## 1
Amino acid sequence: MERTHNTEPVVVVDKLWSIFGEGDKAFAVHQDLDLTVYRGEMLSIVGGSGTGKTVLLRQILGLLHPGKGTVTTLGRPAAELCQEGAAARVGMLFQHGALYSAFNVLENIGFALREQGTLPDAMVDEAAMIKLQMVGLKPEHAMRMPADLSGGMVKRVALARALIMDPPLLLLDEPTAGLDPTSSDEFCALLRDLHAELGLTVIMVTHDLDTLFALSSRVAVLAEKRVLVTGTPREVAQFQHPFIETFFQGERGRRAMAPAPVGEH
Ligand SMILES: Nc1ncnc2c1ncn2[C@@H]1O[C@H](COP(=O)(O)OP(=O)(O)OP(=O)(O)O)[C@@H](O)[C@H]1O
């Protein structure tokens, strides 16, 4: 399969140790974990429950600090992102990223830009309206409250909020979790289109094989506290490891890897 990324690293994780607890209770979630993500990739991170996929996203975003090793995001130590306001450089769609329930859709989308305080409210609203339409919502949705949105619409608003500052890098934690199959397919199509249109680099955590195959140019498998293997979905699926066999070679994995019937994409 042709590689869709170039060779400019956007994220470089070098011999990372992620450590929680102190003294006798300290434990490492990652040990000497290496991962490089290149500009324009859509990289999926997969691994068993508790292998540290979300922790790795948080390290890349600079919300956690390496016990040992380094995380370089967009050419700088990841920790510096947070100090200067990460939203401008990295968009993050959290797994349980609920919207602010007291704010309407437009206020949610424009939140980071308004907080920055550099633009008048009318311009923030205008920018938020552009993002609202970019994620496939209509202007009449702008004044709705989060409680009045479907699950698919909540994800779209959260995505628009993550993109408000035009970040070059987007992190997604389980982007299709909780969506029905149709909404999930629609959200994948949206992500694929935005990735291409905006020239984004995307790193996502997913358990969902359909999402993985629909979107990933490359997959990184987390196991044994490190990145065990990277490659295209089909390359990784051939790797001999108990997690990979269970994950890719079950019924759902075989279905996801089956060639699409003629006429389907
Ligand atoms: N702030 C924290 N303090 C202590 N332990 C933590 C903290 N954050 C994560 N951990 C631990 O790190 C490990 C990895 O957590 P993480 O949420 O990254 O797993 P995951 O691979 O995303 O799992 P899942 O697929 O179940 O969401 C878990 O054992 C978790 O308890």
## 2
Amino acid sequence: MKARFIFNPHSGSNRRNPHLRDRAAAFIAEHGWDARVVDTERPRHATELARRAVDEGCTLVVAIGGDGTMNEVACALIDTPVSFGLIPCGSGNGLGRHLGIRDPGRGAFRTLLTGRPVAIDTGMVNADPFFCVAGLGFEAVIASRFATLTSRGFSGYLRTGVAAWRSHRPEHYTIHHAGGRDEVEAFTLAISNSSQYGNNAYIAPGASVHDGRLNVTAVPSVGLHNAVPLLWRLFNGSLYRTASVRRWEGERFVIERARPGWIHTDGEPRAEISRLEISVRPRSLRIVVPAGQAVT
Ligand SMILES: Nc1ncnc2c1ncn2[C@@H]1O[C@H](COP(=O)(O)OP(=O)(O)OP(=O)(O)O)[C@@H](O)[C@H]1O
């Protein structure tokens, strides 16, 4: 097997405990693969490293990191025959959790040996691909603040979320979809390929990563009166039972807002824009999932 492992020393707890780099090297030696581990040195470097691996004839490129690293590596593998492997060890790990690749230890490495490739969809926001969730509003503000933290993990999301919640106000959006146009006030607006943000927070319960469709979810104003029930439903996978939460499903959307603002793709902040053209590239990424795992 000719492979490349791309390790992000900045993801999740890798900074404090970079043992997964050594574990990957030991795995390569144990199985006699023609492979090596390379570290990312800066944001977006993983895409360059993955492109190089493809050019050099690797048939498998593995991301060791969170959803941001996953996104950067996967961007280089869209519409190629190269398989994508994931050792999820970030702060949220939304795609890994959706696909049943949970354990950054033995389980995820075993999947590289015994798993099967599944072709999943790529979502596009203008020119930026995403595989898990993209979004606007509160979640994009969190992504922009979280990107500046040196200490990461779930507690980092929690602290950032509580601080941003106090000052964030719902925004007005126009959503163009196949059935027409809707105007919404949303606290946060998510465009999902997979079902969750990460940490089992299900923003689009029931979403499928290979149905050629995306889910847009608008969460209304979140205040003291409804924050707890909304959070409970988010983590319980029943958000769509909240009457005030609106959703659309389809292949194409255009989302407009009055002023440019942050967006995020897979938890990473991107350019501040006011018009988003959203589309999907069906079954464009081959990702290795556990052999017995049913993939929705
Ligand atoms: N050497 C580096 N130094 C600083 N940042 C880096 C480096 N290499 C990559 N990055 C950036 O680290 C960021 C975070 O990575 P990643 O998303 O994998 O971890 P996470 O945010 O902890 O997890 P999750 O996305 O699952 O919440 C990405 O924006 C990536 O571009």
